[in-house]
TrEMBL record:
Keyword annotations of the record: Isomerase
Keyword Secreted tagged: no
InterPro entries given in the database record: 6-hairpin_glycosidase_sf, 6hp_glycosidase-like_sf, AGE/CE, AGE_dom
SUPFAM superfamilies on file: Six-hairpin glycosidases
Organism of this sequence: Devosia rhodophyticola
Keyword ATP-binding: no
Taxonomic superkingdom: Bacteria
PANTHER family tied to this protein: N-ACYLGLUCOSAMINE-2-EPIMERASE
Similarity comment: family membership: Belongs to the N-acylglucosamine 2-epimerase family.
A Pfam cross-reference name: GlcNAc_2-epim
Name the record gives this protein: AGE family epimerase/isomerase
Amino acid sequence: MSDYAKLLPSTNAASWAGRPFHRQWLMRQANNLFDFFQETSIDPDGGFYELDDKGNALNADHNICQIHTATRMVHCFAVGALIGRPGSDEMVDHGMRFIWERLRDERHGGYFWSCDRNGPVNTIKQAYGHAFVLLAASSAKLAGHRLADQMLADVTEVINTRFWDDKRGAVREEFNADWSPVAEYNGQNSNMHMTEALMAAFQATGEKSYLDKAERIAELIIGKHAVAMDYRVAEHFDGDWVLDKSYLGNEMFRPAGTTPGHWLEWSRLLLQLWTLGHKRLSWMTDASRQLFRRSIELGWDDKHGGFFYTLDWDNKPVMTEKLWWPLSEAIGAAAYLSDHDRDQFFQLWYRKLWDFAANHLIDTKSGGWRSELTTDLRPSARLFTGKPDIYHALQACLIPLYPTTGSLANAIIEADHTSHY
């Protein structure tokens, strides 16, 4: 147990998730995020702007909208529609039309990485981006959007025929526009988000093939590789799925070493997958606990607070920036673990994580969450400019409010079916 946990008497460790004030506070934070991103995010020429610290559009004169920006906005505002947030349906429709009409490659199939008002800018086709198309289409289907079934069928076919490697039980990383290979590289991050999207698609359609793929990815990335590394998640592999410790990559999307934020993300996803799989794969629950504990043990800055962005192979911090998304993922994981495990460790960390978010990340003056802090918790912009993303923070706010039985959008529907108001 951490030093923080020792300071709290056990009688104060009761779950916050059931307390009316905490639930109201969480929904208020979620609504603030919707307010921040809804007002100025729409690019009238298509897609969405990324926003600066004040909520103004970045690069408004020449906006290049990337696939993960558009798809995450669709997913989040589909969630907004499901909880009854006015204005959400228009945001979903704007994003769905942009993805379908502008990012989809009508000639070769699949979806480009980015485009501007004149057409495609980066024509690379990544499993990471296609995972978010699948997530967006799945959430939009639950929200009732007219294009959802068509997009869901289209991206599923692309994933099955182009990305899925049935021999390995994972998705291949990336291709050129004509589907010629780019490099002999495989990454866990794209497979992690594909796991998230496959679970959402399974719950949106009931088609078990999605769930089967998600379980196979988890077995490869966590059951085989992370377990062998004492529950540290390896990020980068060669074409044969052999760990590549020398990989340098891109410090924002593919940083070298290990990334504790992804251990936390997998911690939650494994419990989702275990639940959706009728709780038959018992190894997933222990792995979920171990991943969370290792991220706290190795990734948390005991002096200043917050998670280091990356560690080297000796578990020493390398990139010491404190980003908003690992903290957000930690909250979601702690919420899941607190609901499935009686160990007070997880609930105590749930409280500590929200303390950190409230005191350092949530911008009560300008709105949104600060995306990056220095080691000693001063606002920074070395890696991320402005407040580029609603997805991670919104899910941190909403996941604790709904059943921990699967994907967020479906959990909202499930809660509606069992409520009495």
